[in-house]
Amino acid sequence: MSGIASRSQLRMSFLRYALVTVPLVLLLGTISGRAAGSGYGNGWFDALQKPALMPPGWVFGAAWTLLYILIGLALALILHARGARGRGLAIGLFLAQLALNYAWSPIFFALHETGLAFIVIVLMIILAALTALLFARIRRAAGLLMLPYLAWLFFAAFLTWQIGALNPDAAQLVPPQPSADIPL
């Protein structure tokens, strides 16, 4: 018996990693967003002035779903690259930027800290860029899968900065309370 795995064995090994990483990354992102009351429908967020480039709410759900799938696949490629030089550091940076990603929604939507959210997203961009570089050194495809995520992070940072600039007192903004009065 040979010690070298066949192409189909290697493909199945990658698929096993992907079957764990993709749903896990997606699930944790969804939990973070839902727990923080992310997006439209959040009274505080709805009361904020939005920049002209602000997309409709459905775009965020679609974009983040696709991006979490892509970065989950990138992680699976790196996990599959056992023995690759720099793999441990690449995975560590990936997990650090992902932790910041999951922290962003609670900071912005639940704590109403637009300034801190902007700092967090800038740190995310730095760590995600370093992760993409390290991923590309190990598996070029993994680095490429990180690029749409990086592009979206830049856009999200711009939106965060703009919302902070348009709403300097965002942390003190109290959303309107629904009325139980019956209109006459």
Briefly summarize what is shown.
This protein is an all-alpha fold and 184 residues long. The chain has helices spanning 7-36, 43-47, 57-80, 87-110, 114-138, 140-166.
How are the SSEs ordered, and which strands pair?
Layout: H1 7-36, H2 43-47, H3 57-80, H4 87-110, H5 114-138, H6 140-166
Helix pairs in contact: 1-3, 1-4, 3-6, 4-5, 5-6
Structure description:
This protein is an all-alpha fold. It has one domain (9-45, 55-172). It contains 6 helices and no strands. The model has no long low-confidence stretch (mean pLDDT 91).
Radius of gyration: 20 Å
Q: Give the topology string: H per helix, E per strand.
A: HHHHHH
Give the domain tally.
1
Secondary structure: helix percent: over 70%
Low-confidence stretches: none
Number of helices: 6
Beta strands, count: 0
Overall mean pLDDT score?
A: 91
What attributes characterize this protein structure?
184 residues, mainly alpha
